[in-house]
Amino acid sequence: MYAQMVKTDAARVRSLDEMDPVERAFQERVDAGQKIEPKEWMPEGYRKTLVRQISQHAHSEIVGQLPEGNWISRAPTLERKAILLAKVQDEAGHGLYLYCAAETLGISRDQMYEQLHSGKAKYSSIFNYPTLTWADIGAIGWLVDGAAIMNQVPLQRCSYGPYARAMVRICKEESFHQRQGYDALMRMVKGTPAQKAMVQDALNRWWWPSLMMFGPSDDASVHSAQSMAWKIKQNSNDELRQKFVDQTVPQAKYLGLTVPDPDLKWNEEKGGHDFGEPDWEEFFNVIAGNGPCNAERLDARKKAWNDGAWFRDGLTAHAEKAADRRAAAKIAAE
Amino acid sequence: MSSEWPLWEVFIRGQHGLNHRHVGSLHAPDAEMAINNARDVYTRRNEGVSIWVVRSSEITASAPSEKGPLFDPSNSKVYRHPTFFDIPDEVGHM
């Protein structure tokens, strides 16, 4: 999940009877599956929760370019390099769709950047792990984008129109991301024993962080219940995690890999896999800023922003000059 | 920090002689850069043959609260739809 543990400000979910008429009308529209649009009335908690979730989601797309960007100059073939470039460019695009969706809720782009760069805003825990080998790039497409798809497909039905529409665009493009990753791994497992071992090693390192992407169990979370009542969230974290495991295990088997979980086994009765518990202490540590790459990611992001300042200023200066020239020409013509 | 670039709304004409359709928005310093950025953000997969951009601040929108006064009057005018009129089968296709 690209947005993890989003808070709602709710102490508990209130029933329709407890709401004033305006809020009740809003909740009834949400219950009826209608989309809420930017200028319409919405509860302040709904707006704030969406800002948190969409901006966190956008930051994840932007920071998510960094682990993969690390391998653009070292891709094994020109074709793989072009594919990876296209994928990383898509991530930038996804970030932009989402920032625009968040801006419709009254937060500015600069405010969101400031929150990211100051470390106030979060992004997905998954991007704080290093990409050590080329197999990691395949594993990210297969597992990380696979987990993201699990989360993003239901978000297309989110009650907030701009977010739902951004998700439709993103989901269309995301499938390419997952397939190119799996395709790279299919090629590697048919290679030398060393290459196959590299793929197994990548799975060993990315499996648990991928399961953590969905966040800890939220069956008892009031924030999750409120987000579901608002139809910002459609499924529980555990539901999505279960779906992801059930989908991914046969894919690992096809590659001839072993999922690094001794407790993993098929449970005929429930029609799904039983599996072990991720290390939530590690998760909370990474979220708190102490993962292997938190500092490196944030520094790279800030450096990119600061190094681009002269270029943004240049474009602004050019736009102002051109506008002045047009104004002068208009006066001269009159 | 430099001042924030204005917001532009982006409209794309798809391949098949359709209308330009709103696809989203982006920030850019001027119209020319807005078109360039729109190309990269919204047409990476052949989604269009033409792009329009317009500054968001130039758009005048109806207010959600006006929905009733604006659109309710047409509800009662069902005769505007061809299905309102029963034409006998013998008349043939009409």
TrEMBL record, chain A:
- This one is known as 1,2-phenylacetyl-CoA epoxidase subunit A
Nuclease is among the record's keywords? no
Q: Source organism's superkingdom?
A: Bacteria
Q: Does the keyword Oxidoreductase apply?
A: yes
Write down the NCBIfam families for this protein, in alphabetical order: PA_CoA_Oxy1
Q: Which UniProt keywords apply?
A: Oxidoreductase
EC main group: oxidoreductase
Q: What's an example of a GO molecular-function annotation for this chain? A: phenylacetyl-CoA 1,2-epoxidase activity
Q: Show the Pfam families listed in the entry.
A: PaaA_PaaC (PF05138)
Q: Which organism is it from?
A: Shinella lacus
EC number(s): the record gives 1.14.13.149
TrEMBL record, chain B:
**Keyword Oxidoreductase: yes or no?**
yes
Q: Which domain of life is it from?
A: Bacteria
Give this protein's Gene Ontology molecular function annotations: phenylacetyl-CoA 1,2-epoxidase activity
Pfam families hit by this protein = PaaB
Sorted UniProt keywords? Oxidoreductase
Q: Which InterPro entries match?
A: PaaB, PaaB_sf
Please report the name of this protein according to its UniProt entry: 1,2-phenylacetyl-CoA epoxidase subunit B
What's its EC?
Answer: 1.14.13.149
